[in-house]
Amino acid sequence: MAVISIYSTKGGVAKSMTAIHLSSYLANKGNKVFLLDADQNVRTCSDWLEDSTDKNFDGDDFNSFDADMIDVINTLQKEYDHVVIDNKGSNDLIVSESLMCSDFCISPIVPQDNDIKSLPRTLETIHATRDVNTDLQYKFLIQKADTHAFSRKNKKLLNILDELELDRFETVIKRRSGFDVAMESNSTVLDMNNDAKAVYEINRFGQEIERWMEGKEH
Ligand SMILES: Nc1ncnc2c1ncn2[C@@H]1O[C@H](COP(=O)(O)OP(=O)(O)OP(=O)(O)O)[C@@H](O)[C@H]1O
Ligand SMILES: [Mg+2]
To answer: What integer is the mean pLDDT of 114-140?
Structure first.
């Protein structure tokens, strides 16, 4: 049982795409999963959930609960194996409460200068949360990376994360049209099976998450 927040202060870094694919991966493994859309303005996950025909997990908009974030998460935790929260790309009470109730935080980061610039702000929020929620574990997930094997941008980001001694997933999710097409079709690359490399990356990322969660439980 885990509450997993997807969080970054930066917009457009694939938070919602990660939340949806992770929910689908965990549900495929036989878990009862709830995807909580906590980004009331953009509503990517709510729209996706509304129009998706082949989803294997439950989910809803945070607003539909008419309760505060802590109560919503407590309620969902009782009914589901895993709660995945898609957070908005900014900081407010809902984001802090979401992180405060989470066991794990996954922070997607794109190998681009603008995105790297937002790293200190994201870290600041995570560290402030960990002052109170001392059990919160976090890792960065490199998302929308160049597909070139020797990409200078990818290497730069890897070096920065290593220099700052920040934990990251070994799996790097590349910028692939399969992801875009799946999201546009209210599906996932796992269901569409439209892009073998994209499927491989999500499965590898999912296996890393499972090992991470097992580590915490022991
Ligand atoms: N690995 C990828 N390869 C190609 N396209 C991707 C990838 N990941 C996400 N995208 C596309 O990038 C766009 C932004 O993704 P997404 O909505 O998940 O980001 P976000 O961080 O949730 O954005 P927001 O801050 O607006 O909530 C979407 O069109 C999505 O389909
Ligand atoms: Mg989003």
So the answer is: 96
Residue 22, ligand 1, Cβ within 6 A: no
Contact yes or no for 5/103 (Cβ under 8 A)? no
**β 2-6/104-109 pair status:** parallel
Element (H, E) at 109: strand 104-109
Q: How far is the CA of 211 from the centre of ligand 2 (A)?
A: 26
Please tell me whether residue 3 adopts helix, strand or coil conformation: strand
The tens digit of pLDDT for each residue in 208-218 reads 999 999 997 55
pLDDT digits (tens, 9 = 90+) for 48-99: 999 998 799 999 999 999 999 999 999 999 999 999 999 999 889 999 999 9
Atom 11 (ligand 1) nearest CA:
180
CA distance between the termini of the chain? 13
Q: Is the Cβ atom of 143 under 6 angstroms away from ligand 1?
A: yes
pLDDT at 54: 78
Q: Is the CB of 210 under 6 A from ligand 1?
A: no
89 lines ligand 1 (CB under 6 A): yes
For ligand 1, whether the C-beta of 11 sits within 6 Å is yes
Structural domains of the chain, ranges and CATH numbers in brackets = 2-217 (3.40.50.300)
Q: Please give the Cα distance from 22 to 4 (Å, whole number).
A: 10
